[in-house]
Design brief:
About 25% of the residues lie in helices and about 25% in strands. It is built from 9 helices and 16 strands. It has about 325 residues and is of the alpha+beta class. It has a 7-stranded mixed beta sheet with strand order 5-2-1-6-7-8-9, sandwiched between helices. Strands 10, 11, 12, 13, 14, 15 and 16 form a 7-stranded antiparallel beta sheet that branches.
Length: about 325
């Protein structure tokens, strides 16, 4: 006998929208959407709304935007919805008083193959570490972050040219399909759970902590493969950067979005620049060189190297800080 589902969806950014859209198109009963409060942003402090709220308005969905998830008024509103399944995608950490409410549980979609890459930035870290594959996982939320029992997983390969942006978009779509499969399994009460602790005991666990700006600085003394993975793992956001030394007391920040590399033995200074100032920018690293395909200098647009060199010239004494 099928369960009659009443769903509350919780999410904020673009990553969550395809899943919510798939749920709506599959004709499931979404009785409420919980998303982040509106907030002022930009120079004019214009109020911006979350991507999930914008989508929810277009579909006429019931929207809740609590400042605090333990607020009694919010909890009362949740209870009135009489939902029996919560689905969480790219939202805040839920307190037990919220995730324990629905009869059939609260499940989360995470952008990695758990128990690997628990944390806030699984897509970035998988690429930075040069993983050949990753995926998405649905799991029931418990009182510890990303540790609940696994319901389902879907795997995908990571190509050498994938960036965090391209992988994000692919996992976003794969994830929406997995969410629907998971709902159907819960609806039919036909699924087998996998214990993460048991899986963890058989693996060398890698983590995916939040990435801060200070974590994005390139170390040119690393090997070229690592630097290339670091750049693509942070592209397009927050973007890997380095300080371009122009003179003794002047530097410019350069962000890197796309590169390739060549391994070779050399005796060049680490961080030294080789360029024809027309088509190519090469930066020497530990065991070879990084060839820059897309770059951005502070205050300027992100450009392909050929376009960038139309308006910028490297002098012989310029170099990137090691």
């Amino acid at each position: 006998m099928k369960r009659d589902l009443r769903i509350v969806f919780m999410g904020t950014p673009e990553f969550a929208i395809p899943s919510l859209d798939a749920i709506i198109k599959a004709k499931y009963n979404v009785v409420g959407v919980v998303t982040a409060p509106d907030k002022p942003s930009g120079r004019g402090q214009k109020v911006s709304i979350s991507a999930v709220k914008e989508y929810s308005i277009s579909k006429g969905l019931n929207i809740l935007q609590p400042e605090k998830l333990r607020n009694q008024d919010f909890l009362n509103e949740l209870n009135k919805l009489n939902a029996n399944l919560y689905i969480v995608i790219a939202f805040r950490m839920l307190p037990k008083v919220v995730w324990s409410l629905p009869k059939y549980g609260t499940f989360n979609l995470h952008a990695s193959l758990l128990p690997q890459y628990r944390g806030a930035a699984p897509i970035n870290h998988a690429i930075i570490n040069g993983e050949p594959f990753t995926g998405v996982t649905t799991f029931f939320i418990n009182d510890r972050i990303d540790t609940g029992s696994i319901i389902m997983q879907e795997k995908t390969s990571i190509s050498e040219n994938d960036t965090a942006g391209t992988l994000h978009d692919r996992l976003m779509d794969i994830g929406s399909n997995l969410v629907i499969k998971t709902i159907k399994a819960i609806e039919a009460n036909e699924y087998i759970l996998s214990d993460q602790e048991e899986l963890s005991s058989q693996l060398e666990i890698k983590h995916a902590p939040k990435i801060y700006k200070t974590d994005c600085k390139i170390d040119w003394s690393m090997n070229v493969e690592h630097i290339h993975n670091f750049i693509r793992g942070l592209s397009p956001y927050p973007a890997a950067f380095s300080e371009l030394h122009i003179s003794k007391d002047k530097t410019l920040q350069a962000k890197f979005y796309k590169t390739h590399y060549l391994k070779c033995e050399h005796e060049n200074q680490i961080g030294a620049i080789e360029t024809d100032n027309k088509e190519t920018i090469t930066i020497w690293a530990k065991n070879g060189k990084i060839i820059v395909d897309e770059i951005q200098i502070s205050g300027k647009k992100r450009l392909r190297t050929t376009d960038f060199l139309n308006g910028f010239t490297f002098d012989d004494n310029y170099y990137f800080q090691k």
